[in-house]
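tool_call predict_complex ligand=PPS
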Amino acid sequence: MASRPPLKMVGDMPLIEYFADNWEKVKNFQAEEGDLLIDTYPKSGTTWISEIVDLVVHDGETKTSQRGSISERVPFLEFAVPDVPTRAQKRNKMKPPRLIKSHLPVHLLPESFWEKNCKIIYVARNPKDVLVSFYHFYRMAVVHPEPGTFDKFLHQFIKGTVSYGPWGAHNKDFWKIRHQRDILYLFYEDMLEDPKREIRKVMKYVGKDLPEDVVEKIHQCTTFKAMKDNPMTNYSNIPSSVMDQTISPFMRKGTCGDWKSHFTVAQNELFDEYYKKEMSDTDLTFRF
Ligand code: PPS
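tool_result ok
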């Protein structure tokens, strides 16, 4: 496959070129009543929450969660890459509740999600760890442009010229409408702090009352180690010509605070300035 094409604009958002070329289909996607959308800014815990939600809606049944890779069970709405199945056909045949993954911001989501009042689970993560995770993802996934140095990527992230655009607006826009649209807004750092508490929030949101041993089982199946070792969740099914996990594994660190081993003092000061400005018009806060 042709690698590292430049990002292409979709409206005001820079996007992976292959995804942008598939835009008409994405825009016209017909969500159905009962569909549940998992939305995040990239690298915020999408795969983790997807596995949790799939297990919760299937009552913690691990046989069911082993029925296919995470991209088959929770198809990625805007995904389109040569040589990798899009799962769109499979998605269209899925029985409700269909679980769908997307990284699209509020203003670019297909209208049908709002028209059909679909449930939405959003996961947010502190932007320093998002940036680090995204940088390593750019390095290993050739659908992105070359990231260059960490410093160059940090400046692009601050400018909002990375794939899916600015981190701040993405997180703030879902935060703003979370009550009005009944969105379950979760934080990666909370999931690390008390995974079972967050699993119970998902259960409540999707109307499941599962016994304690099942909650424990879901927790055990969705630890970083379990998901890193599980071929259904670690993306080992994606050809190495697309995602080279020898450069950086998809399941990389799974922690809070890895940014401290990447940022220089000057980069941290610059980023803090950006963060302060970005968050001056919201009550949304993050833990680092
Ligand atoms: S993507 O490509 O945008 O869909 O990536 P996404 O899944 O949102 O984010 C990947 C980061 O999430 C970490 N991860 C986890 N952390 C803790 N526990 C579990 N179970 C887990 N599963 C995935 C993954 O390691 C990436 O973060 P980094 O910081 O790079 O390790």
